[in-house]
Amino acid sequence: MIQKSSERNKQGVIREINGPIVTIRLPGVRNSEQVLIGDLRLVGEVIALQGEEAIVQAYESTDGVRPGEPVETLGKPLSVELGPGLLGGIFDGVQRPLEALFETSGDHISRGVAPPALDRERAWRFVPDPELAPGMRLERGARIGTVQETKTIEHRILTPPNLSGELMELAPEGDYKLDRCVGRLKGDDGVTHRLYLYHNWPVRLPRPYRQRDHSQKPLITGQRILDTFFPLVKGGKGAVPGPFGAGKTVVQQQIARWSNADIVIYVGCGERGNELVDVLETFPTLQDPYTGRMLMERTLLVANTSNMPVVAREASIYVGLTMAEYYRDQGYDVVMLADSTSRWAEALREVSGRLGQMPVEDGYPAYLASRLAAMYERAGRVVTFLGDKGSVTLIGAVSPPGGDFSEPVTAHTKEIIQTFWALSKELADARHYPSVDWVGSFSDHVNTVARWWHDEVSPHWKRRREQALALLARDAELSRIVNLVGPEALSSAQRWELEGAALIKEGVLQQNALDAVDTFASPKKQFLLLEMMLTIYDKGAGLISLGVPVQELRGLEFMSRARRAKQTYDSDQTEELEAMIKEISDEFARIRVEYTKFQEHAH
Amino acid sequence: MSAKEYRTASAARGGLLTVIDAPRVAFGDRVAIRDHHGALRNGQVIRSAEKEVLIQIFEGTDDLDLESTWVRFLDQPLEVALSPELLGRIFNGIGEPKDGRPPIVSSLKRAISGSAINPAARTYPREFIQTGVSTIDGLNALVRGQKLPIFSASGLPHNRLAAQIVRQAKLVDEESSFSVVFAAMGVSYADAQFFKDVFSSSGVLGNVVMYINQADDPPVERLALPRAALTAAEYLAFDLDRHVLVVMTDMTNYAEALREVATAKGDVPSRKGYPGYLYSDLAEIYERSGRIRDRHGSITLVPVVSMPSDDITHPIPDLTGYITEGQIVLSRELHNQGIYPPVHISPSLSRLMKDGIGKDDTREDHPRVANQLYAMYAKAQETRNLASIIGAEELSEQDRRYLEFADQFDKQFVGQEEDEDRSIIETLNLAWELLSMFPKAELTRVSETDLAKYHRSGD
Ligand SMILES: Nc1ncnc2c1ncn2[C@@H]1O[C@H](COP(=O)(O)OP(=O)(O)O)[C@@H](O)[C@H]1O
Ligand SMILES: [Mg+2]
User: Cβ–Cβ contacts within 10 Å for residue A136, how many?
Assistant: First the structure.
């Protein structure tokens, strides 16, 4: 951490309190600077200057605050602490540790208390980088050593990314608390800086890196409709829009559980308290399918629930992103889930409304689109200052009022992201989960990840995927005809197409997050299920062209078994799935022989 | 308490009073206003500047004149007194007695605005509440600590359903153990009376606290009412260790009062004139329900939300649905067919059902049965639509089975008597009776074991 020459905090006075917006008189205060408001010393941030006055947004309720009470600057913008001890924790929208707050102030969040985000009492085993010696030059964001933060995550202790210079001293291996100095560095500015196991970084300033990296790998989530049909890449930007109850949170939690990321940051932004509790209570008992360790060891939560102060909601996304970038800078693949970006946008709207700014659409300020774009821009895959690759994948839920995707937040988001998982109320109402609508969703990454699937899973992946989508499109077309003229108008082949689409929907697309087996599917299992349904469809279509009635095929014994295969066999049982596909093929071959015989007989 | 009275009111309209030259008034504080008749009104500071204070008056600004309005700043937040004596009492929106009895005397007072529960202090709600209503227990189960609204519309029997839940709600194998907090905002005299009768005829009156603001009571008071009610509920739940069921009706009247005041304040409107902060405001109310670590009691919240013009995308039900843990949606169509309770299961949802049901809570097949019923009903609805276009005669035999299923489902499973208290086992057995209309091979959402055990076919 950089030692600040302790600048004297400036004092001022409150002039007006209008909910979370406080007007103060404090000459010399800077925009974005943090202030302590009133006798309660509530935390706030300067968002505008007007002559002698400054407008402050308060991160805590301003009940009881009076005009005339003092304000004091903190001399720095809203920043977060970055160091070991973040993982497994839950923080509020301005990174206050909620567990510690619970210990000190009980069931309800009390005001004016700001314990440090990272536990100062805990000691960490620090192993200095053996390559380093005093006198060596350290570039910015250099590694000075490591701490084993959890069983799976080795925390790389970095110098702040705005600091370089000559290493003067580095502590030997040992147990250090966070406020113990572990080194000294003579900066290029000529000042001596003490180094600690953590440093601070302002949340609104994206952390720098060496360069963007353009190689792409799929982010595997274990969710079939996502991975197989609308894939996302590591470092990508995705959005999950949908009306309430469509399944946004479940999609996000499933990704938090099962994606092949190193670190997961889950930001509950203006949503339900119990959804965070669900994560807090279940993740410590769930195993990461890739490392076998408990999921909580790679997860951290940021919570600004819907009843917590609105303006901290706006900050919570940046707090999450900054921590995500910090682990990215250590060379990790980080997934950040933001549930929901609409609440973040509403917080912007609330503040801009109170400032009397001109609304442009649905009350949102004109800068909504640019802020959204800048936020998503913090996602990406980069080459870090250490020369490693790291990534931040950002997946935002969007909660359009009335489920109307033409509203501003959804519409702007759609322009920015590359993967769009549109959730549908109709599918959700029919309990088709995940209710990702295959017509309204898209992914710009299909061609890039096709290579990976080709090499790692099956050369037929791309063709099978396209075939399934084509079948679903035919299904929609045929259903329209049925609704006009009735099912009798369809040929047998067409009815079999409907059956094929039903198999894809029930056997592949629908995936029950609550079923112990079905909740996660490895890429191989995903492909085999797809293969199974399409094998049934293809072979069946062949028989139908020979004149076998659809009814007879529908009644085949394995039809319901195939629909259940997803919850019968887990990802390790791919051999069983392969055997079942073989069995199905054999059975079709047998029917074919029998049927040809029967027909010859008839002739 | 400050004794000084100010006579510097400078504007009064839309429930808001502006007072100038009142120094250093705390934001959110309580205000006493004496009008020219000498009558007292109650207010709260909603904007405070050195020169000017804006006050929201719960009794409204009707009939005020600026000259002879006296304002006293009480130097305290809007609070209610709390004691076990609350039970059996009736109050208005700011906690003043409405039953002709003296006010509650207690040294324990709490601000009605409350403060957010630390998410880290919560525990996940998982105890199944049997309401005796099949569409709820079987398909959208309620658990202790959940917030589950009833989405309704004018003329639908939401109050009767809410009352049935109040009468029948209990944990399986346990006697009814709920204390009830009843919060009525802008309801008719008849509706208020209906609930009073329900409470007294079911003998729970001594275990109920009522907060009532009728349709002809001042609308601004509705803004305080749910908060006063929840402050009492929190006291009963987390100080007195009780399980509390809070019924609120009708949140739409609350939101309309909020819009009225917001408009008067000049807040930027978002959809349909409701202020942008309606979401956060509703969340402050709804999120006060729940369970807390190491606390015995709980707050289960069942708000009634009527959908203006039967429109579920209207901001009030829409924002409510984004906050609550599901919704029970009533349908005019079912109601017109004489089905009670007319619960439309497709848009209904209980998000907390998953952890409250199954082997250790209700029965092992429960989650899958619910899933299967939903799948069959969705298919049946499609078939119904088809039949309405091409005529039922044109349907295949298989399709006709779905139609028959849908009809039986609506009649037997959805429909029940207002005093019919079905156990969860009865509900599940009824479900299997209906599912057994289909051959086993078509029921792919239940397990083979379930089929062997519960399917009614001969084989
Ligand atoms: N993949 C899934 N498997 C099983 N149930 C699901 C799935 N997705 C959604 N659900 C059901 O839908 C409910 C609502 O989902 P949720 O993600 O909370 O919706 P949203 O966040 O869009 O409001 C969940 O509580 C769950 O019952
Ligand atoms: Mg959600």
Answer: 13
Residue linked to tokens 């202030």 = A35
* pLDDT confidence of residue A595: 87
- What b/e sequence results for B403-416 when a residue is b if at least 16 CB atoms lie within 10 Å of its CB, and e otherwise? bebbeebbeebbbb
Whether the domain at B5-77 and the domain at B81-355 fall into the same CATH topology = no
pLDDT for residue A1: 36
Which of A109, A350, A363 comes nearest B115 by C-beta? Answer: A109
Using CA atoms, how far apart are residues A528 and A573, in angstroms rounded to an integer?
11
Q: Where are the domains of chain B?
A: 5-77, 81-355, 366-454
Determine the residue among B25, B146, B268 to mutate to test chain A binding: the one whose Cβ has the most chain A Cβ atoms within 10 Å: B268
Residue of A nearest to B29 (CA): A64
- Residues in chain A with pLDDT < 50? 1-6
Closest C-alpha to ligand 1, atom 11:
A247
Residue B269 has what DSSP assignment? B
Q: Which residue has the tokens 């940046």?
A: A318
Nearest chain B residue to A308, by CA: B116
In the block, which residue shows the tokens 């059902």?
B353
Residues 6 or more apart whose CB falls under 8 angstroms from that of B136 comprise B142, B165, B328, B343, B350
Is A63 an interface residue toward B (CB < 8 Å)?
yes
CA–CA min distance B354, chain A (Å): 8
* Residue B374 near residue B168 (C-beta atoms within 8 A): no
Domains along the sequence of chain A with CATH: 5-77 (2.40.30.20), 120-197 (2.40.50.100), 211-440 (3.40.50.300), 461-602 (1.10.1140.10)
Q: What is the DSSP letter of B361?
A: T
Tokens matching residue A200: 């601070």
Are A528 and A547 in contact, with CB atoms under 8 Å apart? no
CA distance A381 to A392: 6
Residue B282: the pLDDT is 96
Residue B292 is encoded by which pair of tokens?
């807390």
Q: Whose CA is nearest to atom 24 of ligand 1?
A: B351
CA atoms of B453 and B434, how far apart (whole Å): 15
Which residues of chain B fall short of a pLDDT of 70? 1-3, 173-176, 458-459
- 3-state DSSP call for residue B184? strand
Residues within 6 Å of ligand 1 by CB: A 242, 244-250, 433-434, 511-514; B 349, 351, 354
What's at B449, amino acid-wise?
Answer: T
What is the Å distance from ligand 1's center to A248 Cα? 7
Q: What is the dihedral of CA A439, A445, A450, A456, to 10 degrees?
A: -110
* Topology classification of domain B5-77: Elongation Factor Tu (Ef-tu); domain 3 (2.40.30)
Which of B31, B51, B55, B118 to mutate against chain A (most A CBs within 10 Å)?
B118
Structural contact between residues A395 and A338, judged by C-beta atoms closer than 8 angstroms? yes
Cα–Cα distance for residue pair A311/A58, rounded to 1 Å = 7
Average pLDDT, chain A: 93
ipTM here:
0.94
The predicted structure's pLDDT at residue A7: 53
Strand partners, A498: none
Among protein residues, the one with the nearest Cα to ligand 1's atom 26 is B351
B235 φ/ψ angles, rounded to the nearest 5 degrees: -65, -50
Contact B154, B308 (CB under 8 A): no
Separation CA B391–CA A488 (nearest Å): 12
Per CATH, the architecture of B81-355 is what? 3-Layer(aba) Sandwich (3.40)
Cβ atoms of A338 and A317 closer than 8 Å? yes
Smallest Cβ–Cβ distance between A99 and the set B48, B120, B386 belongs to B120
For residue A487, which residues of chain B lie inside 8 Å, CB to CB? 386, 394-396, 399
The tokens for B99 are 């039953």
The three-state secondary structure class of B437 is: coil
